[in-house]
Amino acid sequence: MSVRQTPCVLVVEDESAQREVLKYNLEAEGFEVVFAENGDEALLLVAEEQPDLIVLDWMLPNVSGIEICRRVKADPDTRSIPIVMLSARGDEVDRVRGLETGADDYVVKPYSVVELMARLRTQLRRTRPATMGERLSFGDIMLDAGEHRVFRAGQALHLGPTEFRLLSTLMEKPGRVWTREQLLDRVWGRDIYVDTRTIDVHVGRLRKALMQNGGDNPVRTVRGTGYALG
Questions:
Q1: Three-state SS for 105?
Q2: Which superkingdom is the protein from (predicted)?
């Protein structure tokens, strides 16, 4: 079973030498890496993999990086995925165009690999804080991803590993409604079959753990869809 506990980065780059440099450094950071060599392949992988971050070259065969960025940010299912655009175009007008199209950051080639990795970590801390060892909080609930501990009103709670991953996912974006399929993908991974109703069992266990000391139920059921925190 492959559970996505580390961020998945989609690298869209048609130059093999650049792909190898990025692969080596991203894997050294502990990231899962998938590659696309052209625009069509990139759009397919965005839909299939739902990566946590996209590193996107501007100049690509078939579909340009600018067009990929526009489409990803126009789709409600993918618009929250951060995009870091790479380009040899360093003029101000090109930087502005990239950012206004939806890129979350813009890095000019040739770039410092150390700086690029720092920029990617910054984006991931914003969108996937739990995977970066950060502390998350919601109301009186605090989750320490680095220490793998959860507290409510200052009291330690005992959660199983599945309930911990489930809570960390919900706490990344309080108020967001997650479908059962999205939660199964995030918590269990894609290469194993699990009935969607399994998530209901684990949500029940999570609620019981969160309410064990008399707290209210923070996990909201959205009928016909899934769950949200708050």
A1: strand
A2: Bacteria
pLDDT tens string 198-207: 889 999 999 9
Rounded distance, CA 77 to CA 22, Å? 26
Cβ(10)–Cβ(19) under 8 Å? no
CATH architecture of 135-229: Orthogonal Bundle (1.10)
Using DSSP's 3-state secondary structure scheme, residue 55 falls into strand
CA dihedral over 38, 39, 41, 42, signed as positive or negative: positive
Give the whole-angstrom CA distance, residue 38 versus residue 21. 18
What would the pLDDT profile of 47-90 be if each residue is shown by its tens digit?
888 898 999 999 998 899 999 999 999 998 888 899 999 998 88
Q: Where are the beta strands (DSSP E) in 110-177?
A: 135-138, 141-144, 149-152, 155-157
**Separation of alpha carbons 37 and 13, rounded Å:** 5
CATH code of the domain made up of 8-124: 3.40.50.2300
CA-nearest of 66, 55, 52 to 107 is 55
pLDDT digits (tens, 9 = 90+) for 93-111: 988 999 999 999 999 998 8
Could you tell me if 190 and 180 are in contact, meaning their C-beta atoms sit under 8 angstroms apart? no
Domain boundaries of the chain, sorted by first residue: 8-124, 135-229
Token pair recorded at residue 196: 């969607």
Measured from the Cβ of residue 94, the count of other Cβ atoms closer than 10 Å reads 17
Query: Which residue(s) pair with 56 in the sheet?
Result: 12, 85
Q: Which helix (H) or strand (E) holds 228?
A: strand 226-229
